[in-house]
Amino acid sequence: MKTKGLGSCYLILISLCYNTRTIMQTILLSNEFGSIEVESLGARLVSYVPSSEREVFARLSDGTGGMPICWPWFASDGPEGCRRHGLARYHDFMFLRRFESTCVSEVELILRSAVDMREEFGYDFQLLVRYRLTDELTISMTGENSDTRPFSVNEMFHPYFQVGEVADCRVTGASLFALITARFERNSGMCCDRENGTRLLGRFGL
Predict the structure, then answer these.
(1) 183: confidence class by pLDDT, cuts 50, 70, 90
(2) Cα angle vertex 190, ends 186, 193, to 5°?
(3) Mean per-residue pLDDT for 125-132?
(4) What's the half-sphere exposure (Cβ side, CA atoms, 13 Å) at 124?
(5) What is the phi-psi region of residue 203: left when phi exceeds 0, alpha when psi lies from -120 to 50, beta otherwise?
(6) Calpha distance 182→130 (Å, rounded)
(7) Domain limits of the chain?
(8) If we measure between CA atoms, which residue out of 120, 41, 44 comes closest to residue 76?
(9) Cα dihedral angle (155, 132, 88, 79), rounded to 10 degrees?
(10) Who's near 146: CB < 8 A, 6+ residues apart?
(11) Residue 32 CB burial class (10 angstroms; 0-12, 13-18, ≥19)
(12) C-alpha–C-alpha distance, residues 101 and 44, integer Å
């Protein structure tokens, strides 16, 4: 299905995802500021192309890439035997709402806990993910505790940025420095520069 109006474009593609026994949808939104592509599986941002610029995210041959979300835990910091980077990325979200105009395109996706999720996480919840494309791309995650017991979560975005010369790239920001430094030092793939940020000297994964 494809509709056009007010200079924006909304397109839904449907593809079978046999390994999860679900039907995965991909939504494409565009306006005068660029375009984004979002998958229902994991609510992953697959592509972001600002107007008159190149693709922001890398898409790897093994199917990874873009910007997956990690919720309600990061890495393997969940329950014993948990899957890596949370459970949200392995489940199909429902497209809840969309809005589009010449300068604003927005889509919301929601994931509500089901039996298999409760077995893995132990709680009832719902997770809302919102993508808003204007002259910048704004992304938010809002989790809601639908259970009778409190629980804690870790939530992160896991971007695969497409870069030119890796050796010329730097990651700045005090909150990320300790984590990135530890990961790179462990993998012998970085050079520290505490004033100008962490210099990337090779590929690494969190």
Answers:
(1) low
(2) 120
(3) 97
(4) 4
(5) beta
(6) 31
(7) 2-162, 165-206
(8) 120
(9) 10
(10) 112, 113, 123, 124, 125, 126
(11) middle
(12) 23
> What separation in angstroms does the CA of 52 have from each of 5, 28, 65, 114?
21, 17, 22, 42
Q: How far apart are CA 142 and CA 71, in angstroms?
A: 10
Residues β-bridged to residue 127: 111, 143
Classify domain 2-162 by CATH number: 2.70.98.10
Mean pLDDT, residues 20-37: 83
15-40 average pLDDT score: 77
DSSP state of 18: T
| Rounded Cα–Cα distance for residues 60 and 7 (Å) | 31
Q: What's the 3-state SS for 143-179?
A: EEECCCCCCCCCCEECCCECCCCHHHCEECCHHHHHH
The residue-averaged pLDDT of 92-104 equals: 91
Predicted TM-score of the model (pTM): 0.74
Rounded CA-CA distance 46/131 in Å is 12
Please give the Cα distance from 139 to 110 (Å, whole number): 14
Question: DSSP character for 74?
Answer: S
3-state secondary structure (DSSP) of residue 88: helix
